[in-house]
Amino acid sequence: MRTLCAVVLVFEVVVIGLAIPIAINLEGTDPALAGGVWGGMALAALVLSGLQKHTWAYYAAWGLQAAFLFSSFMVTGALLVAVVFVSLWITGVILGRRVDEVRAMHASRAEAEEATGTHGAAEGAGPAETAGAAGGAGRA
Protein backbone atom coordinates (compact mmCIF):
# COMPACT_ATOMS: atom_id res chain seq x y z
CA MET A 1 0.00 0.00 0.00
CA ARG A 2 2.76 2.41 0.91
CA THR A 3 4.40 2.11 -2.52
CA LEU A 4 1.20 3.03 -4.33
CA CYS A 5 0.66 5.97 -1.99
CA ALA A 6 4.23 7.17 -2.54
CA VAL A 7 3.72 7.11 -6.32
CA VAL A 8 0.56 9.18 -6.02
CA LEU A 9 2.43 11.70 -3.87
CA VAL A 10 5.26 12.01 -6.41
CA PHE A 11 2.79 12.79 -9.19
CA GLU A 12 1.06 15.20 -6.88
CA VAL A 13 4.33 17.09 -6.38
CA VAL A 14 4.36 17.94 -10.08
CA VAL A 15 0.74 18.99 -10.17
CA ILE A 16 0.95 21.11 -7.03
CA GLY A 17 4.12 22.72 -8.35
CA LEU A 18 2.36 23.60 -11.59
CA ALA A 19 -0.41 25.30 -9.63
CA ILE A 20 2.04 28.02 -8.55
CA PRO A 21 2.52 29.77 -11.92
CA ILE A 22 -1.16 29.30 -12.73
CA ALA A 23 -2.16 31.00 -9.49
CA ILE A 24 0.28 33.86 -10.09
CA ASN A 25 -0.39 34.48 -13.78
CA LEU A 26 -4.06 33.64 -14.18
CA GLU A 27 -5.49 34.38 -10.76
CA GLY A 28 -3.24 37.29 -9.79
CA THR A 29 -2.24 35.64 -6.51
CA ASP A 30 0.71 37.17 -4.70
CA PRO A 31 3.83 35.17 -5.69
CA ALA A 32 4.92 34.85 -2.06
CA LEU A 33 1.54 33.43 -1.07
CA ALA A 34 1.38 31.04 -4.03
CA GLY A 35 4.95 29.88 -3.51
CA GLY A 36 4.45 29.50 0.20
CA VAL A 37 1.18 27.62 0.05
CA TRP A 38 1.68 25.34 -2.96
CA GLY A 39 5.46 25.25 -2.80
CA GLY A 40 5.23 24.12 0.80
CA MET A 41 2.65 21.50 -0.08
CA ALA A 42 4.76 20.25 -3.01
CA LEU A 43 7.80 19.97 -0.75
CA ALA A 44 5.73 18.20 1.91
CA ALA A 45 4.40 15.75 -0.70
CA LEU A 46 7.93 15.02 -1.89
CA VAL A 47 9.21 14.40 1.64
CA LEU A 48 6.18 12.33 2.60
CA SER A 49 6.52 10.18 -0.52
CA GLY A 50 9.93 9.10 0.67
CA LEU A 51 8.75 8.48 4.22
CA GLN A 52 5.70 6.32 3.50
CA LYS A 53 7.28 3.41 5.38
CA HIS A 54 6.43 5.28 8.59
CA THR A 55 2.86 5.23 9.83
CA TRP A 56 2.92 8.92 10.83
CA ALA A 57 3.90 9.90 7.26
CA TYR A 58 0.94 7.97 5.90
CA TYR A 59 -1.45 9.91 8.13
CA ALA A 60 0.34 13.19 7.40
CA ALA A 61 -0.24 12.51 3.71
CA TRP A 62 -3.97 12.26 4.43
CA GLY A 63 -3.68 15.74 5.94
CA LEU A 64 -1.83 16.91 2.84
CA GLN A 65 -4.68 15.63 0.67
CA ALA A 66 -7.14 17.68 2.73
CA ALA A 67 -4.91 20.78 2.53
CA PHE A 68 -4.60 20.43 -1.24
CA LEU A 69 -8.35 20.05 -1.57
CA PHE A 70 -9.11 23.12 0.54
CA SER A 71 -6.41 25.30 -1.02
CA SER A 72 -7.60 24.43 -4.51
CA PHE A 73 -10.53 26.81 -4.09
CA MET A 74 -8.04 29.66 -4.60
CA VAL A 75 -7.22 28.67 -8.20
CA THR A 76 -9.77 28.17 -10.96
CA GLY A 77 -9.71 24.59 -12.19
CA ALA A 78 -7.53 23.34 -9.35
CA LEU A 79 -10.52 21.89 -7.54
CA LEU A 80 -11.03 19.33 -10.29
CA VAL A 81 -7.36 18.34 -10.12
CA ALA A 82 -7.49 18.14 -6.32
CA VAL A 83 -10.56 15.91 -6.46
CA VAL A 84 -8.81 13.65 -8.98
CA PHE A 85 -5.74 13.31 -6.74
CA VAL A 86 -7.76 12.72 -3.60
CA SER A 87 -9.62 10.01 -5.55
CA LEU A 88 -6.29 8.52 -6.67
CA TRP A 89 -5.07 8.59 -3.08
CA ILE A 90 -8.17 6.78 -1.80
CA THR A 91 -7.95 4.26 -4.65
CA GLY A 92 -4.28 3.70 -3.88
CA VAL A 93 -5.06 3.05 -0.24
CA ILE A 94 -7.86 0.60 -1.04
CA LEU A 95 -5.97 -1.30 -3.74
CA GLY A 96 -2.77 -1.22 -1.74
CA ARG A 97 -4.49 -2.82 1.24
CA ARG A 98 -5.86 -5.56 -1.00
CA VAL A 99 -2.40 -6.24 -2.41
CA ASP A 100 -0.96 -6.36 1.11
CA GLU A 101 -3.66 -8.84 2.18
CA VAL A 102 -2.96 -11.11 -0.81
CA ARG A 103 0.79 -10.97 -0.16
CA ALA A 104 0.26 -11.84 3.50
CA MET A 105 -2.01 -14.73 2.53
CA HIS A 106 0.56 -16.10 0.09
CA ALA A 107 3.37 -15.70 2.62
CA SER A 108 1.42 -17.55 5.31
CA ARG A 109 0.52 -20.30 2.83
CA ALA A 110 4.17 -20.65 1.81
CA GLU A 111 5.25 -20.82 5.46
CA ALA A 112 2.63 -23.49 6.17
CA GLU A 113 3.74 -25.56 3.17
CA GLU A 114 7.36 -25.16 4.20
CA ALA A 115 6.59 -26.24 7.76
CA THR A 116 4.70 -29.36 6.65
CA GLY A 117 7.18 -30.19 3.91
CA THR A 118 4.62 -30.23 1.13
CA HIS A 119 5.04 -28.06 -1.89
CA GLY A 120 1.91 -28.92 -3.86
CA ALA A 121 3.58 -31.24 -6.40
CA ALA A 122 5.64 -34.39 -6.13
CA GLU A 123 8.75 -33.58 -4.11
CA GLY A 124 11.96 -33.50 -6.08
CA ALA A 125 10.16 -33.53 -9.41
CA GLY A 126 10.30 -30.56 -11.72
CA PRO A 127 7.30 -29.26 -13.66
CA ALA A 128 7.98 -31.46 -16.71
CA GLU A 129 8.44 -34.59 -14.63
CA THR A 130 5.26 -33.87 -12.67
CA ALA A 131 3.26 -33.40 -15.88
CA GLY A 132 4.76 -36.59 -17.33
CA ALA A 133 3.93 -38.58 -14.24
CA ALA A 134 0.39 -37.24 -14.19
CA GLY A 135 -0.55 -38.17 -17.70
CA GLY A 136 2.47 -39.35 -19.60
CA ALA A 137 1.65 -36.89 -22.37
CA GLY A 138 4.22 -35.96 -24.94
CA ARG A 139 6.71 -38.78 -24.34
CA ALA A 140 7.87 -40.97 -27.16
UniProtKB/TrEMBL annotation:
Bilayer-spanning residue ranges: 7-26, 32-49, 79-96
Superkingdom of the source species: Bacteria
Biased composition annotated in UniProt, kind: Low complexity: 115-132
Region (Disordered): 110-140
Coiled-coil residue windows: none
Keyword field: Membrane, Transmembrane, Transmembrane helix
InterPro entries linked to this entry: DUF4233
Protein name: DUF4233 domain-containing protein
